[in-house]
Write a structure and sequence with these properties.
Shape: globular
CATH architecture of the largest domain: Up-down Bundle
Structural class: mainly alpha
CATH class of the largest domain: Mainly Alpha
Distance between the termini: 32 Å
Number of helices: 10
Largest sheet: 3 strands, antiparallel
Number of domains: 2
Number of strands: 3
Strand order of the largest sheet: 2-1-3
Helix content: 55-70%
Order of helices and strands: HHHHHEEHHHHEH
CATH topology of the largest domain: Methane Monooxygenase Hydroxylase, Chain G, domain 1
Radius of gyration: 21 Å
Strand content: under 5%
Length: about 270
């Protein structure tokens, strides 16, 4: 079953919000906008968790911030403010996350950013929340901007520290899978051509590659070319806007959490394509 779209999520929220005492100023449609990719069960969890957070602080109503905290907890896990991180590592994390935020801000097809934090949450030492556009199809240009945003944290470490860390593991995993999909599934490589090796009928028992070793080598080369291109895109953005990127990282170190408004104050309004 497909995950609910914006209108569907709005209706699901209305069902689960009926029995809650809500802040009269709360825009419930806003909640549907903040939860792309959430299932009906996820939305029920958000409402329950928000009510628990509000009760924990003896609030009369469940407020917008309670819902935002609930969404953060479901997506990223519990905050671990007690975790001690050495200052040099904290600085690396701040610049890493500021790298993601800066690149996504200036590339028009990247997902718009909502919030960045360097407070450990779940297994992550830092995290950025985005609001993905709910597209039915995605162009190569849109995918490239998203890949550049993904590798922006690694590139930020290269620029600032002149070396890289293991902190980009999740980014690199997602980056590599997306690049392989572009080449082997979506026909977005001129060298490989308009072919797709995706098998919608595969039941998990096909142990043979549907292409030759020569094609496999070509796919590997094209994937590396795409990743290298994304790397160059990210590096250009960070070098062109280094002053703001540096300011953003320092702000993260100071506040630990920054929002869209902080990026707008630093860089000016975000330009969409």
């Amino acid at each position: 079953m497909d995950l609910p779209e914006l209108k569907d999520r709005d209706e699901i929220f209305k069902v689960h919000l009926k029995d809650l005492k809500l802040d009269p100023q709360l825009d419930t449609s806003f909640l549907a906008q903040q939860t792309p990719g959430f299932s009906g069960a996820d939305i029920a969890n958000v409402c329950n968790e928000a009510a628990l957070i509000a009760a924990r602080y003896n609030k009369k109503f469940v407020e917008r911030q309670d819902f935002m905290d609930a969404i953060d907890r479901i997506v990223g896990g519990l905050e671990r403010k007690s975790k001690i991180i050495p200052p040099n590592e904290k600085k690396t994390i701040a610049y890493h996350e500021a790298g993601h935020a800066t690149v996504s801000w200036f590339l028009p097809n990247a997902n718009p950013l909502l919030k960045v934090t360097i407070i450990p949450r779940g297994k992550a030492l830092g995290a950025a929340w985005y609001l993905p556009e709910e597209r039915q199809i995605t162009t190569k240009e849109q995918m490239m901007d998203e890949l550049a945003s993904l590798i922006g944290g690694r590139v930020a470490e290269e620029i600032v520290n002149k070396k890289v860390s293991s902190g980009a593991l999740n980014d690199l995993e997602r980056l590599t899978k997306q690049a392989y999909a572009m080449v082997a599934y979506y026909g977005m490589s001129d060298a490989v051509g308009n072919v797709s090796y995706y098998d919608s009928q595969d039941q998990g028992y096909n142990f043979n590659k549907p292409f030759s070793e020569k094609t496999a080598e070509l796919i590997d080369v094209e994937v590396k070319n795409i990743i290298n291109q994304a790397h160059r895109m990210a590096r250009k953005v960070l070098e062109d806007h280094f002053e703001g990127f540096n300011e953003l990282a320092k702000l993260l170190l100071e506040k630990e959490v920054i929002f869209t408004e902080d990026l707008e104050r630093t860089f000016g309004p975000r330009v969409k394509e």
